[in-house]
Amino acid sequence: MRQLKIFTSLWAMQPHDQTGIRLSHEKVCERVAGAGYDGLALDLGAADVETALAIRPHMDRAGLTPLIVAFPRSVESLRETLVMARDFGSPFVDVIGQVMPVTVEGMIPVIRTWIEMSETVGMPIHFETHRNGITNDLYATLCLLDAIPEMRLSADLSHYVVDREFRLPLDPRDRSHIRRILERSDSFQGRVASRQQIQLQIGFPQHRKWVDLFKGWWREGLKDWRQRNPGGDCIFLCELGPPEYAMTGPDGREMSNRWDEALTIRSWVEAIWEGLGGND
Fold it and tell me: On the CB side of 273, how many CA atoms lie within 13 Å of its CA?
């Protein structure tokens, strides 16, 4: 049976809305589990291993599955994170590689070594499409996909919308490039961007055209995932980051309620999944 599992991020919960209040680890887990999320992503770029260890017992009590997000700064340093993720019970490790050769030829051995490492440790990895990482550029990433057929992605398309400054209506060439990314993606992330901003307020009417674009991509990605996977869990991470990802007014206060927005995105994705056949 195929199931949709929706996560949120510890990073997105610090703070979780425009009040600026930072909840304790216990309260974060209670709130996330109480809202019906399946798991919590632990971002080792925004936090550290000590934080992950500290929140783990609270996640266990709340019944939340951990998802480890790694930012390896050397090729070998990923190994320790893979072992930790295996111990935590993470379904995979979301890799945002900080080893960034200038050329695609230089990137290929890095990616291949990390894939071999994941197979040795027994912990799957997805390479997140992310700025300031080895997948920073859409075109270079497409070349990597051609060179390394076993490379799997976690699609956070917000980064490429900003990086490539996509215009609407979307050019057929750009649409085909994103299609290739989605075909190689085994997990997905939820954030709406424009060509100028990494994270938009989804309820503002002027942003509707970008919301529609992303909802279409999520449907396309989930549909393709279902066609490739007769069973298993499809993980979708709602990741609306705090300031300075979230835009603020002159008083420094966020312009919308990210907690509510994440729940809205979750409802959209759940409806898309159900429209595709649900947990069949």
Answer: 20
Helix (H, G, I), strand (E, B) or coil at 161: helix
Q: pLDDT of 140-164, one tens digit each?
A: 999 999 999 999 999 999 999 999 9
Inter-residue contact 98 to 115 (CB < 8 Å): no
Give per-residue pLDDT as tens, 159-186: 999 999 999 999 999 999 999 999 999 9
Tokens of 265: 């995105």
CA distance 183 to 224: 6
Task: Give the whole-angstrom CA distance, residue 175 versus residue 256.
Answer: 30
Distance CA 232, CA 161 (A): 29
Q: Are strands 93-95 and 2-9 parallel, antiparallel or unpaired?
A: unpaired
pLDDT of residue 46: 87
**Distance of alpha carbon 157 from alpha carbon 178, whole angstroms:** 8
Residue of 109, 147, 111, 105 whose CA lies nearest to 127: 111
Residues 6+ apart with CB under 8 A from 101: 107, 110, 134
What residue ranges in the chain does DSSP mark as E strands? Answer: 2-9, 39-43, 65-70, 93-95, 125-128, 153-155, 185-190, 232-238
